[in-house]
């Protein structure tokens, strides 16, 4: 990399740093021992994580591809473990067995069935949504039933609609085990952060006994994807996303994002009514920094189908302005069928994507 490019990239990184108030960067504390109880408190799983020297040591070892990254060397058998406990008649708990978890460091969360026959873990410390163990189903004796990556459950297109941050894909909400022997995954369906107000979820069932999903892998949210592509040199592509609503852009200075008399339209129906969907040019600074990802834009539309205002709800700060400006130019079919409502409101997702070529 020559000196001019180095200076420019430094400028880009400084510019990104100037937006820290709206960019959601990941912050991972060292993992700690955690207990996960069954709903009836008759059982619990105690997760003991791999002992790490520090976050910095772990990430440095990962970059240098060292085995047993970040591990405290003097700790014997330094692996992520699960211990299964059963409640006694006196109210205390007895440990029945201990087993190794497939996670390298630690899962982020876990569920235990009320009958004490199954344990399910979710995601990995520091990298939610990545790896072949995003969802892992065990019998309570430690036997592995099935492990899943996001790619084994969902299409690539649907995964692209989830909010991305520096290290993670925020794909799921409050998963649960139902009484009929199924794991129910709560999958974000409207590109919102799982704990953000207004987040919506699709429920995907997996049979615990067999690890078999109850519906085939298919596009669940195709209406939420609109692509802007750019061909760049191969290299790393940091995924930095924020979820703070931005100031709206409106068709005229007299307009404002006033949704008090608007009817909210489900995203699939909203997209189906769009007649003209111009896409934005790729922002040069975002292209130079290899920034990509989805921007969710909330759109306020008149009864005649003209966009009044567009407001970015999520996505990287360097992509939001371009996405909102493009959304303002969309044209919809008439919403006259809304009756007394003066306006319609809905959300779209515009995905900025690099085609990395070598």
Can you describe what's shown?
The chain is built from seven helices and 20 strands. By secondary structure, it is an alpha+beta fold. It has two domains: 34-152 and 205-218, no CATH class; 223-357, 2-Layer Sandwich (TolA/TonB C-terminal domain), CATH 3.30.2420.10. Strands 13, 14, 15, 17, 18 and 20 form a six-stranded mixed sheet that branches. Strands 1-2-3-4 form a four-stranded antiparallel sheet, with no helix packed on it. It has a four-stranded antiparallel sheet with strand order 5-6-7-8. Mean pLDDT is 82; it is low at 1-25 and 232-244.
Structural class, from helix and strand content? alpha+beta
For the record, what is the CATH homologous superfamily label of the largest domain? TonB
Number of helices: 7
Reading off the top of the CATH hierarchy, the class of the largest domain is best stated as Alpha Beta
Parts with pLDDT < 50 across at least 5 consecutive residues:
1-25, 232-244
* Element order: H for helix, E for strand: HEEHEEEEEEHHEEEEEEEHEHEEHEE
Q: What spatial form do the alpha-carbon principal axes imply? A: elongated
Strand content: 25-35%
* Number of DSSP-assigned strands: 20
Number of domains: 2
- Termini separation (Å)? 16 Å
Largest sheet: 6 strands, mixed
């Amino acid at each position: 990399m020559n000196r001019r490019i180095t200076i420019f990239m430094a400028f880009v990184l400084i510019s990104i740093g100037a937006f820290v108030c709206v960019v959601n960067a990941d912050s991972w504390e060292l993992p700690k021992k955690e207990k996960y109880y069954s709903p009836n408190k008759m059982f619990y799983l105690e997760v003991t994580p791999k002992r790490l020297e520090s976050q910095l040591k772990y990430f440095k070892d990962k970059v240098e591809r060292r085995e047993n990254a970040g591990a405290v060397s003097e700790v014997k058998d330094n692996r992520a473990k699960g211990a299964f406990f059963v409640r006694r008649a006196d109210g205390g708990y007895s440990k029945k067995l201990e087993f190794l978890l497939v996670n390298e460091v630690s899962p982020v969360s876990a569920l235990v069935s009320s009958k004490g026959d199954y344990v399910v873990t979710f995601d990995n410390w520091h990298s939610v949504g990545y790896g072949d163990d995003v969802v892992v189903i065990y019998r309570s004796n430690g036997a592995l039933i099935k492990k899943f990556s996001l790619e084994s459950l969902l299409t690539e297109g649907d995964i692209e609609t989830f909010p991305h941050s520096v290290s993670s894909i925020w794909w799921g909400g409050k998963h649960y085990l139902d009484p009929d022997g199924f794991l129910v995954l709560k999958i974000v369906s409207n590109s919102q952060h799982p704990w953000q107000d207004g987040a919506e979820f699709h429920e995907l069932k997996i049979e615990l006994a067999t690890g078999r999903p109850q519906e085939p892998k298919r596009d669940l949210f195709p209406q939420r994807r609109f692509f802007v592509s750019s061909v760049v040199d191969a290299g790393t592509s940091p995924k930095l996303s924020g979820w703070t609503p931005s100031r709206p852009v409106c068709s005229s200075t007299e307009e404002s994002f006033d949704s008090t008399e608007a009817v909210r339209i489900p995203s699939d129906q909203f997209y189906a009514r769009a007649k003209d969907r111009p896409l934005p040019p790729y922002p040069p600074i975002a292209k130079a920094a290899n920034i990509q990802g989805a921007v969710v834009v909330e759109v306020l539309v008149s009864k005649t189908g003209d966009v009044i205002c567009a407001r970015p709800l999520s996505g990287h700060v360097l992509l939001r302005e371009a996405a909102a400006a493009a959304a303002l130019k969309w044209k919809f079919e008439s919403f006259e069928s809304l009756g007394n409502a003066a306006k319609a409101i809905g959300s779209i997702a515009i995905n900025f994507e690099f085609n990395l070529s070598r």
